[in-house]
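Dear support,

I submitted the protein below through the web form. The confirmation email said the job was done, but the results page showed an empty box. After a refresh the structure appeared. I'm attaching both so you can tell me whether what I see now is the final result or a partial one.
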Amino acid sequence: MNTSDILPAPFEWIAIPEGRTVIEYGEWSLDTATQQYEFTLNATQVFKVEAFTIAKYPVTNAQFAAFIAAGGYDNESWWTHEGWRQRRKKGWTTPRYWADARWNAADHPVVGVSWYEAVAFTLWLSATTGEAITLPTEAQWQRAAQGDDQRTFPWGETWDATRCNNNDGTHGVGGTTPVTRYTNGASPFGVVDMAGNVWEWTRSNYDFDRHDVHSPAQYRALHGGAWDIATLNLFYTAARIRMNPELGNESWGFRIVRE
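What the results page shows now:
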């Protein structure tokens, strides 16, 4: 069974050829004078990325609903050991905000999902399709967002608030938008919403070069910026933030890859 047979539209795989990307390691700090976040670069690492495919859009509410309908929150085999422990501890049966009309439109990205819930979704989809579906590593995510020229934004070098869902000046809409709205902000490979709408969980441990979903990690990395962000450099394709994997809020979502 194919992924497109299981997940409601819009869904499409985008093929990403092998290439290279550069992860920038450093620290973000808030400049209290400007109320803008600034990045201090500590180190860089070049990664060779093998060919893979990535979802054109973030996972939507309608697509995540298929996981819930399949008993996703009841089947331990679709969760990591720590993910299942957190699900039971916190009593998760749906993502946060699932019943809130502000966030649950069918074609908007699912929000309120912890990293563990995003991983459970991929393990369910892998078991159902027989394909190797997972979250992207940071290097895969950046490769899909930047293309071959390591561009600053998915669409090029110059910031353009009309190309993504953001909170820059008068452009903010105060929430998520349909994943198909900003096709004019697509990456060189045609991947949409790589800047804005929601931050996207990656498979990667923020502090180390590790991508195993079963490995312990205090923080996992997110990329892409979100609808509530006004700091422009957080929309850079190389920008990364860290979050505890058990947390989820109204500006975090995810997309999937097939390896």
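Response: this is the final, complete result; the empty box was a page-load delay. The mean pLDDT is 94.
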